[in-house]
Amino acid sequence: MSIMKDPVLEMVNISKSFSTVEVLHNVDFTLGIGEIHGLVGQNGAGKSTLMKILNGVERKDSGKIKIFGKEQEYNSPIQAREKGISMIFQEFSLVSSLTVSQNIFLTQESHNIFGLLKDAEIERNTVKILKELDVENIDPKEYVENLSTGSQQIVEIAKALSHEPKILIMDEPTASLSSHEIESLFKVMNKLKKRGISIIFVSHYLREIFKICDRVTILRDGNKVLEEKILNTNLKEVIVKMTGKDQEFQVSRRKSQIDRSKPPLLEVNDLEVGNVVKGISFKVWHGEVFGIAGLLGSGRSEIINTIFGVHKKSKGEIIIDKKRVSINSTSDAIREGLAIVPEDRREQGLIIDFSIKENLLFSMINKILSFIFINDKKATKITNDYIKKFNIKAAGFWQVVKFLSGGNQQKVVVAKSLMTESKILLLDDPTFGIDIQAKNEIMNIISDFVESGNGVIFISSEFDEMVSYCDRILVLKKGKIDSIVDCCKEENISKEMLLEKIQ
Amino acid sequence: MRDNNLKTIRFKISDYVVYISFIGIFILFSIILFDRGFLSGQNLLNITRQTAMISLMAIGTTFVLSAGEIDLSIGSIVALSALVTAISLRINLNMWLAILAGLSIGASIGFINGIIVTKIRVPSFLITLGTMTIVAGLARWITNLEAVPVTNDTFNYIFGNGKVVGIPILLIWTLVFLIIGQIFLKKTSFGRRVLSTGGNKISSLFTGINVDRIKIAVFIISGLSASFAGILYTGRLEGARYTLGQADLLLVIAAVIIGGTRLSGGKGTCVGSVVGSLIMGMIANGLVLMNLNIALQMVFRGLIIIIAVSFSLRERKRS
Lengths: 503, 319
Known about the structure:
Oligomer: heterodimer
CATH topology of the largest domain in chain A: Rossmann fold
Number of helices of chain A: 18
Shape of chain A: globular
Number of strands of chain B: 4
Number of helices of chain B: 14
Number of strands of chain A: 22
CATH topology of chain B: ABC transporter involved in vitamin B12 uptake, BtuC
Strand content of chain B: under 5%
CATH architecture of the largest domain in chain A: 3-Layer(aba) Sandwich
CATH class of chain B: Mainly Alpha
Distance between the termini of chain A: 42 Å
């Protein structure tokens, strides 16, 4: 490790335990002036805890925090802010019912002599802050709830900047952004860097780390395992350090030849949903993974949600195993052999305050019902089987899913959808925001499902994942089919090519 | 600022639902109740007089809902405050002290509501349902169900039947509180903090807003507004009774929701709430003019409120 001259921040020997579990063990972290420093690690590696300590949300058990060489003690985010540390959260911390400028200057409003608010002034100041970031398409008077996620992220940054921080912590800032929005975010980050603001960038997306960061620190199981200039390391090394194993980064599967002369498993003809999607026709064969690639808002989620009976279709027909089916509700869909892993696992996929068993209960109801009574023992047994089979890391079947990591929550959702003995699985971004190991495990489970002759429709925001995983990919542009590419035939189809097609 | 102009031009019908409904109902009643004197100046002033107390409570409730809470105890506070004021006047307490006594009832019940909601962290729906019952019980108990007449003419004039240049004093009170309420909610940092607390409690906390204090404050405001409504009832009826305010809760909440305040918090407008109250007043007045019996009036009032609230919430969801 290189000793930096004049670091903004030094965290020395930070340790932290929750009850008896040590989550951080003598971790050091340094940050230079105007540096963008990537912090990576799998879920549970301790990155969030480290950042919460830095931001004053959690208290460290031992260790020192020095800012500009001076040791500092604080124990709330507000005190942290006074020391020059601001954090931008993964889940937005804006008040959606207030306007852009009201949010940015919340609690820092200007008043006239009667003590009344001068909104015009904070609007002017908002324009100024946004201009410094080269952002011109955000109206300070617009309500935050009407903004795109990308714009909300920018407002979030502008809010943090109104406190003139020296250190900005960004926790998974790109997680819900489109690639275009990520580009603008990176521009803003580089702008801040030039102004001498130091940024800690926490992300699961390793490629982004290599694109934007100067240095990277890797945590594994509460220990620092690497601190290195980004130019002196590579993706492979980072992954090995993160996982502790030499692990295949790409999720991929063996693709076998599909006999397309046989009747397809699922056929969608001329599907139309409101004015969101139009004229969508495609077929999915037994043993096939069929991808739908498109930007957020292209209608990709609407397509599979409509097939699953969440939205009403305005037009079109759905044929499963040569039989024309009418799906008007999600229970119709399940009866026809469909299952879904929805986009938002916490909202749509799970009942977050219920235990693993309770979450799985409805999906296995047919197996555990004797007359009208639930056979509780059997339910526990089935749950335990799935916990084992899917390698769900939990204290037991009774654990409330809220307390599981993202990857393990997703495994519960997948278990739920596969339990109903479905033959067509609809996956809406199933690997979003989860760590590599859980991602691999989930994709392996799905590979097994496909290999036994079932079909999968797969949406992902990571296009390299789609290219390596899908047999064919439908390219969706503003609700219409642009093309359907065959990943087996077209040898050199790449992520970049796909990205270009969907724009 | 590319799309700036577009946005200012875009007419958001959802922001005007309450005004459109107001005009619609007004025109409808003007036509079908024309022969029964709906449009007469006397009747229109009557409506504003009858609605004054609802409007006042609606202004208080706007603050509570904006902060993401609800106060169901306002109806009972009306009765208890009215009785305390009336009793204080009967024992010949100074008029202003009597009013202070009435207001302190609302303020302290609001304070207690706020403390329990924020410190013990029980949903306000349950807490205020409890205080509603307790306070209603107290109101019955202190007078043994008897009415307390008020003979203080100054009081009855200022808080009930007086007129200033031909304008009923109750209308003036409504306007005064409307202006104060609207300025407080929209133009002070306190109001901004109320909206922010209701909009996103966690982020408000992290921004340095004392969320608990804001919540306690809105309950006090709500209690005070209900107390004042009780005092106005006492003035207008020249006496107080435990039944005062009993039927007002639904009207107030409906008025505020129709007015455009968000049930889940974060958005509120006192002007909308008062217009919503006027809609409630018009409906009540119209049903009386139609000569319906009390039972049928209740049935229709409930129906119309359900239709109006569903309509305005739907319209807003659509945009």
